[in-house]
Structure formats: structure tokens, C-alpha cells
Amino acid sequence: SDQSASNNSNRISVNQRVRRVQRLGQFSVYEASRYEPLIRQSWEKLLEGHTRQELGLKFYSKFFTDNTSLHSMFTRTSDVMGEKFADILADIVTAVEDVTAMKNKLKALAPMHLKVGVKIEHSARMGKALFATFEDLLAEEWTSEVRAAWEWLWSWLSQLLHQSLEDARNEATVVTYSWDLAMDSNTAEEMGELLFDTLFELAPNLKP
């Protein structure tokens, strides 16, 4: 049908946009300004009939249904995680046109993500669960245009997540290497004394 052909055309164009974002790695102000109203309006619509906790719970329900093996990565209850996830998403929606703010948000979360074992390939699974959640809650208002906007945003978040995880991994490697190098030359007691000597030199008021 004409509608089916139109939907297929929209899906192709969405996939092309996502691949372009991944290939070029450049933030498009034009696309941000184009998609921002759709993202904000659909987000506001979601929150009209649901709390953030309800939204997050539904998301994790869908995510864990298809990814049972990843459940062990999450140590908190679904209601706590759900509300936290929705809060993060709300911050990202607020900063949708500010790539620096999005980078800083994901950078702050990166050490925790790295610690629990989050991998870049998990972002596609989370995106699938998120879009399914939105489709259920928005019903007919989950249009191809709204989906395109969220897919654009999620492709950016995935790219930023990848970079933030790499940065956190590199920083952790440097810290670990430096510590191992120091321990090769000093005993634990010597390292402790050196640490306190340096601390008191920098902040004499802390010295007992």
C-alpha cells in the first residue's frame, strides 16, 4: 500500500541518517534544531500520563524481557533504576541541542558504566527497548517523524557513550599502570607514608 511504501521510505531515510551520524561523527546543528521540537513535545506527552518511575519501569521491563542475561549487571531494584534512567533521559532532552552538555553527562556516568560492564553494543538493545516503550505509550502519536527524531538522538548518545567508555577505560588504565609502577618501587607502608606526607604538604591544616 501507499502507507506501507511511505513507512519503508521513512525507515530507509532514518537508517541513512543514523549511518551518516556514525560515519561523520559531526554534530549537526541543523538536525538538532529540526528534531528538538519533536523530541521535547513527545517527551512532554509521555510525562502527561505517566510518572518518570512508571516510564522507567516499563522500559526496563521490555529491556530485561529481551536481555535476561544482562540483568545481573544491574544491582538496584527496577523502580529505582527506572526513575534514575528517566531522570537521565530528561536531562538529555533538556540538553538536546547542546552536544557539550550531552558529552559531559555521559562522561560523568562513564566510570559507573565501565565498572558494571556496560558495552557499546548494549546501546542498540536499550534503544530497541526504549522505542518499543515509546510506541506503546504514545500509540498513534509515535509517528515516523517522532521515531526519526529519537533515533537521531539515540545514535548520538550511542556515539558519545562509546567515546566516554573509551576515555574512562584509558584513564583507568593509566591510573592502574601508575599505581603498579609505584608499588614496584615502594612497599605499601612506604606508599602510605608518601601519600600522607604529600597530603599534609599540600594541606598543612589537615595535619594532626
UniProtKB/TrEMBL annotation:
UniProtKB keywords: Heme, Iron, Metal-binding, Oxygen transport, Transport
Presence of keyword Chaperone: no
Transmembrane intervals: none
Any Pfam family the entry gives: Globin
Listed InterPro entries: Globin, Globin-like_sf, Globin/Proto
GO molecular function: FAD binding; heme binding; nitric oxide dioxygenase NAD(P)H activity; oxygen binding; oxygen carrier activity
One GO biological process term: nitric oxide catabolic process
Globin domain boundaries: 28-166
Coiled-coil portions: none
Signal peptide: none
PANTHER family xref list: ABL201WP, FLAVOHEMOPROTEIN
Family affiliation: Belongs to the globin family.
Protein's UniProt name: Globin domain-containing protein
Organism: Hemiselmis tepida
